[in-house]
Amino acid sequence: MRQIHKRIHEEGTKAILVNLLILIVLVVGINLLWPHQTVWHVVAYVIIALFFGLIVRFFRIPIERKTTIMEHAVISPADGEIAANEIVMEDEYFHEERRQISIFMSIYNVHINFFPFDGEVTYYKYHPGKFLVAFKPKSSTDNEHNSIVIKDAQGREVLVRQIAGFVARRIVCDLEPGDASVVGEEFGMIRFGSRVDVFLPVDAEVNVHIGQKVRGKSSVLATLKG
Predict the structure, then answer these.
(1) 194 annotated active-site
(2) Residue 162: beta bridge partners?
(3) What is the pLDDT of residues 16-75, one digit of tens each?
(4) Does 2.60.98 match the CATH number of domain 73-223?
(5) Which of 76, 139, 140, 194 is catalytic?
(6) Where are the domains of the chain?
């Protein structure tokens, strides 16, 4: 029997239904207030349809996308644009300098997050916080975020941080220390515009540059030293 793949994420079901109900009420209200159809009605219908299409598209699952399998590689955990690539002091877990690569996710990107390499979750912590614009450097620590550390079989650790942005108000993640990390598998998502930071060893060989578009589970962010 052929396997049926979901194209819409389960987190989107309620949001899609709620927005559909609101838009139906809006259309009915427009027709009750202005029953005579004009070109402005058509414009309103087009805008409403485009908005609903954007909501549905936001929760799409990239089922046709293949996972990049490469030894020592750290694969992008998110779709988006590289917003930062710098050496920083990581004070939450490592307490040492790390290379930070930040991926900004606009509302047009797939917002599912994927494990960047094989290993085990050794640390997970949720941090309540602000909702600053995700491009701002302080959003990495000041905004609401989740911090996840993954260790591979060689003992190399990478921290992945899900950060809520100005529009994003919900981070989805249900991990615990001891959970398996399988490259390319989903570990969560962030709804409506956000950012993901990846903290690598400083000697990692970076494969991306600022402004570059990357795809989750497909693009190679960096290669770790063996």
Answers:
(1) yes
(2) 146, 196
(3) 888 889 999 999 999 998 988 899 989 999 999 998 887 777 777 777 789 999 999 999
(4) no
(5) 194
(6) 12-58, 73-223
